[in-house]
Design a protein that fits this description.
By secondary structure, the chain is α+β, with helices and mostly antiparallel strands. Helices cover about 40% and strands about 20% of the residues. A hairpin with a 2-residue loop joins strand 8 and strand 9.
């Protein structure tokens, strides 16, 4: 009978349901402190051996990875929301292949043929987890939360700009 400590770290990673890893999440999967075990060296070694793929600095994936997991690993904390969620739930009908997320920063990036778009919201709004569902390896907003995020980012900002502009004109 094998004990957990006798199983090689790579097997624990490969048997994990998650498909995208940072060194910190890989350390949690393996069950060691990322500071006591050189987990980044293990990840680097197995990416050189073509067991894992290195997408970019600090992001490693299994060969059949889920792009949604990568989306929430690129910039943490973040969750999938906005147009991506509303489109898949049938609320909006314009097709866009980008995976849209809400995070602490605004950024667009393309990795391995997938477009990731991040929109910044206030930290005070980001800490409320109502309307955010936890799936295997990623967090995604409900359609209601995605609508409110979209309203906050685009319509709220537009109304504020109009009000400021009208006050300045007086």
């Amino acid at each position: 009978m094998l004990f957990s400590s006798q199983i090689k770290p790579i097997y624990k990673i490969l048997l994990s349901p998650n498909t995208a890893f940072t060194p910190a999440s890989a350390a949690a999967t393996v069950g060691v402190s990322e500071f006591t075990t050189p987990i980044d060296k293990i990840l680097r070694y197995y990416s050189e051996q073509k067991v894992l793929r290195k997408l970019r600095r600090g992001i490693y994936v299994k060969p059949d990875y889920n792009p949604l997991e990568v989306a929430v690993r690129l910039y943490q904390p973040s969750y999938i929301s906005l147009q991506y969620v509303l489109q898949r739930s049938g609320v909006i009908f314009l097709y866009d292949e980008s995976i849209t997320c809400v995070s602490y920063l605004s950024r667009e990036t393309e990795i391995d043929g997938n477009n990731y778009t991040y929109s910044r919201i206030k930290e005070s709004l980001f800490v409320h987890f109502k309307g955010i569902e936890q799936h295997r390896g990623y967090s995604i907003a409900t359609p209601e939360r995605a609508f409110l995020d979209l309203y906050y980012l685009f319509f709220h900002a537009s109304i504020s700009t109009i009000l400021i502009f009208s006050i300045k004109r007086r």
